[in-house]
Design brief:
It is a single chain. This protein is α/β, with parallel strands linked by helices. It folds into 2 domains: 183 residues, 3-Layer(aba) Sandwich (Rossmann fold); 167 residues, Rossmann fold. The protein has 18 helices and 13 strands. Strands 1-2-4-3-5 form a 5-stranded mixed sheet, sandwiched between helices. The chain has a 5-stranded parallel sheet with strand order 7-6-11-12-13, with helices on both faces. Strand 8 and strand 9 form a beta hairpin. The longest helix is centred in the last third of the chain and has 25 residues. The structure holds NADPH dihydro-nicotinamide-adenine-dinucleotide phosphate (NDP) and (2Z)-2-iminopentanedioic acid. The site of NADPH dihydro-nicotinamide-adenine-dinucleotide phosphate has 22 residues, from helix 10. (2Z)-2-iminopentanedioic acid (2IT) binds next to strand 3 and helix 16.
């Protein structure tokens, strides 16, 4: 296995996020590799780390001042072993090939856990939607779709949103796809409800995360009721995590964005959450405005030079990181443990560094990796695809009950795989092994492709 890790760092030396994801997954699946020497002959690991196809393209667009601009667009089609390529599109200034390869690699195992037939991809652009007008966002999306359209399709590759891509962007991308192809198909998920979107898709990642955490606690005869919870981020996943935590009787005391975090010891109730939704989804403003409205709360500005994030020092019992990768480092993990947190469930993709995860394991914290705990989003994308193929729309109750069943099933699958491979109770090991086996078995069946 160390040969593979050396290959990754020699071939793609600058891709630190991708290397981190590969190292973490392969370390967790080591017991499977030991049992299956035949994987080596078939170059299973070598194939898993090489995307089936990587698209890199120019995205020219005109800003509101009549100035032409150029961004880089990407789509990393990682694996079609168990279904068509499926995964998000991220628009953020930090987007590069390493980040998209890591996200696409994680998506392989996450999608395998959903119980549905979904391959894996991830794409996006180094376009920063912050401060852009609606018209600029539309022109950018149209230019992006004018190239992406030739590579995607309802049975080939079905993108969805991720950071910086929500219903507005999916709408503009879909409009251009439809125009170029002259067909109305379920080629994108996360669509608005009146033209093919699924009920509960917007809520799915956050709701699913909370359903998963509730299962973890139920397995120990506990519940979320009355638990003090930390949530980071304030976008799609964070908002719906808070919403479901409130439903379950928990008390959420934090939120954040890239400018800092807010701490509200009284708890974020439904009214405050509605304010946050308007603030972030409509006005697209900064989280600090929360304290202008709710003056008992505290805003702590982000300090890029600090070695820790103050959000993870707030006293609580459960933590749900829902912003971005590597937002919890070793020091943050130690702070979480010291302040009494006993459950960490990842809503974001790889929010904890490898060192942070080691701290959680060492302290005996209940830890759920994002590929299991935040699989509810892509799972409901799969349900949106199913509804689109049938030209039907299921009720909210139908989709929500399927989501609950899927999260329960992922939870059970993780525990069974962990048990079988001698690490009972480890969601980290169980999630990686179960996802890995599903994909690798399909690869074995389909020959050397
Ligand atoms: P959104 O764009 O809706 O929200 C992202 C949030 O994270 C914002 O509050 C944003 O702050 C904050 N954020 C982004 N980058 C940084 C950064 N570098 N430092 C600090 N804060 C940051 O995205 P989502 O909620 O959709 O995605 C959040 C995470 O969840 C990602 O890791 C994504 O991969 C994962 N995920 C998403 C799913 C989905 O269906 N959308 C499903 C499963 C997982 P600001 O507003 O300042 O940019
Ligand atoms: O990280 C994720 O799972 C997503 N951004 C959602 C992907 C999808 O295709 O629904």
């Amino acid at each position: 296995m160390s040969d593979i890790l050396r290959t990754v760092s020699a071939r793609d030396p600058g891709e630190k996020e991708f290397q981190q994801a590969v190292r973490d997954v392969f370390a967790a699946v080591k017991p499977v590799l030991d049992r299956h020497p035949e994987y080596r002959r078939n170059a299973i690991l070598e194939r898993l780390i090489e995307p089936e196809r990587t698209l890199l393209f120019r995205v020219p667009w005109m800003d509101d001042h009549g100035q032409a601009r150029v961004n880089r667009g990407f789509r990393v089609e990682m694996s079609s072993a168990i279904g068509p390529y499926k995964g998000g599109l991220r628009f953020h200034a930090s987007v590069n090939l390493s980040i998209l390869k890591f996200l696409a690699f994680e998506q392989v195992f996450k999608n395998a856990l959903t119980t549905l037939s979904l391959g894996a991809a991830q794409g996006g652009a180094d376009f920063d939607p912050k401060g852009k007008s609606d018209d600029e966002v539309m022109r950018f999306c149209q230019s992006f779709a004018a190239e992406l359209f030739r590579h995607i399709g309802p049975d080939t590759d079905i993108p969805e949103g991720d950071i910086g891509v929500g219903a507005r962007e999916i709408g503009y991308l879909f409009g251009m796809y439809k125009r170029l192809r002259n067909e109305f198909t379920g080629v994108l998920t996360g669509k608005s409800l009146n033209w093919g979107g699924s009920l509960v898709r917007r809520e799915a990642a956050g709701y699913g995360l909370v359903y998963f955490a509730a299962e973890m606690l139920a397995a120990r005869n506990q519940s979320l009721a009355g638990k003090v919870c930390l949530v980071s981020g304030s976008g799609n996943v964070a908002q719906h995590t808070v919403e479901k935590l409130i439903d379950m009787g928990a008390k959420v005391v934090t939120l954040s964005d890239s400018s800092g975090c807010i701490v509200d010891e009284e708890g974020i109730d439904r009214g405050k959450l509605d304010f946050v939704k308007r603030l972030k989804n409509i006005r697209r403003a900064r989280i600090g405005e929360y304290v202008d409205k709710y003056s008992q709360a505290l805003f702590v500005e982000k300090d890029a030079t600090a070695d820790h994030n103050p959000i993870w020092k707030v006293k609580a019992e459960c933590a749900f990181p829902c912003a971005t990768e590597n937002e919890i480092n070793r020091r943050d993990a130690e702070n979480l443990v010291a302040s009494g947190v006993s459950l960490v469930a990842e809503g974001a993709t790889m929010p904890a560094t490898s060192e942070a995860v080691e701290v959680f394991q060492g302290a005996g914290i209940l830890f759920a990796p994002g590929k299991a705990a935040s699989a509810g989003g892509v799972a409901v994308s799969g349900l949106e695809m199913a509804q689109n193929s049938m030209r039907l729309a299921w009720s909210r109750e139908e989709v929500d009950s399927r989501l609950k069943m899927i999260m329960k099933s992922i939870h059970r699958t993780c525990l069974e795989a962990a048990e079988e491979y001698g690490q009972p109770g480890s969601y980290l090991v169980g999630a990686n092994i179960a996802g890995f086996l599903k994909v690798v078995n399909a690869m074995q069946d389909q020959g050397l492709v």
